[in-house]
Amino acid sequence: MRFLLLIAAAGCLLLGGCGSGGDEAPSEPETWAQNASFGAISVDPGGDQPKIEPPNSPPPEQLQSRDLKVGSGTVARRGDEVFVYYVGVEYRSGQVMARTWLPRKPLIFRLGSGGWDETWEEGIEGMRAGGLRELVVPEAFPNGPTLDFVVKLVRVG
Q: Does the N terminus or the C terminus of the chain have fewer Cβ atoms within 10 A?
């Protein structure tokens, strides 16, 4: 069921006209080293989709999360509507399984509404707008693979 919700949500997203503007010189990608249950993450400051390299460890049995960047905006709480970009890869292979990132529109949903995966929502709760968090979600689909997500919380509203 969670697989169908994930696919339905991703499929409902329309292509948007979002993009980064400005004439700044391109910055180097920021990289977080792999440790424990997490893969190596590279994020291009220009807004490109993060790249997630699979770790060399067995998948965790419980949700794992780490902040890659702490936002400075509103804290996401149960009952809040959140606007997120995300990319999710299969934990062992690194193959992209689900995503919405620029130039697509963000995924919008209410935390705790039951319309999304509870474990995934638990990982987003407590984030601040503008933040970037990695979530390793065991069996993100029923009897399915563990997924490694990078989630960018754009807005709480």
A: N
